[in-house]
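Comment on this:
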Amino acid sequence: MVSIRITMREFEDNCQEISVEKCGIYIHIPFCRKKCLYCDFFSGGAKNVDWQLYADAIVNELKERRHELLNCSSAQSLSVPTMQSLSNPAVEQCALPATLSTLPATLYIGGGTPSLMPVEVMREMVAEIKRIVGKTDSWEEFTIEINPEDVTEDNCRAWRECGVNRVSMGIQTLNDAELKAIGRTHDSAAALSGLRMLKRYFDNVTIDLIFGLPNQTIDSWRKTVDTVLREHPQHISAYSLMFEEGTAMTILRDQGRLSFPDEEVCLAMWNYLTDTLAQNGYRRYEISNYALPGYESIHNRRYWLGNPYIGLGVAAHSYDGNNIRRANPHNIRAYISRFNPDLQQKKQSYKQVGSHSSNLLLPNDHPRPETTGAIKEVGEVLDRVPFYEEEKLTDKELLEEKVMLSMRMAEGLDLDEFRTKFGENTCSLLLKAAEKQIKAGNLALHGNHLRLTPAGIMISDDLILQLIM
């Protein structure tokens, strides 16, 4: 077994308290040039997409839901929107009052591949979003996910003009054979070229890396990490390859057509990453996320802290900060229909979107509506496909989420907050469940926080299950 070489002192030094207030907006762009073999996120092909129609739907969804921002920190429910609100001139002209309590602080455009969206469409969409919420200042953090092949001088300038101040690029690896094995559409040269260009335009650049890839070796991983660090990105997210049910990667593994590094090699890769990043000044503030001081993701921390956020777009998720989660349907046609009340005037454009909807756009776990050809009338799909799913979390589910999300962060679970929310008896039971792993060195008490130790990070899923069982 390869040892973990981070000291507890080094780990504790990474545990910074970061205050995150207000709410955030997430926009899902579900279109890709090509599906990566390991990806289980909802996405569809980008060919023949009517970008303006999709952007209009996102804007219209926010118009219906902007009232949720009025009290997003104490919202009790995500209300059911109405079609009438979209066609009401009074609603159309009204923006939220511009007060600190209502203005979302962060915007995150993820996917899919958001960098495929034409910049003029994105510019109009973002401007309209700011108008709707009454925001006149800059976003505290505005992130867009991009692919290396979309990084051009013109796009960088346009993204910056839109207000983007943080860019997230998926590199995954700088080994061309490994990139090809996972179905990425860029090569290492494009990744490095894109990273260098992004650094010229943006002060906050984050990249994604993956270890445990097909035929990846410790030497190839070291080369990737070392090369990336020479470019000095402000933030790095690094993940172990996950085999999600139904993905092409999992199928190829099960068929024996791809080989992967074993657990010991993956642990050595993780050790090298963590040691090297620490030596270069990066702090691990979440299990898979490392940042130079001051560059932790504000928006993503909302998820881990249980802050409210509104998700717009196909398959987007929302949380009211209290006990209601909401998920939009995995159905592009139904979504566009739902949020385009004047769709009949755009029928030809909509037919184009509908006619190219494939099983990628409407996956098997969300059956395709039984329509023949393009949709005939607005709402036809909605008669058979629920607009969204809403879940009210039970007290037990809230407890489980609090433990699971808090333990992912370097600072761990705030026991005082936990005790206040769930009671003294529940907190005592939690600490009782943690005793064995504290003695084993996998968990640690630091002041009023329960944390994973460096050794515990590698078995974090098992440890968290033990705490909430």
Remarks:
- The radius of gyration is 23 Å.
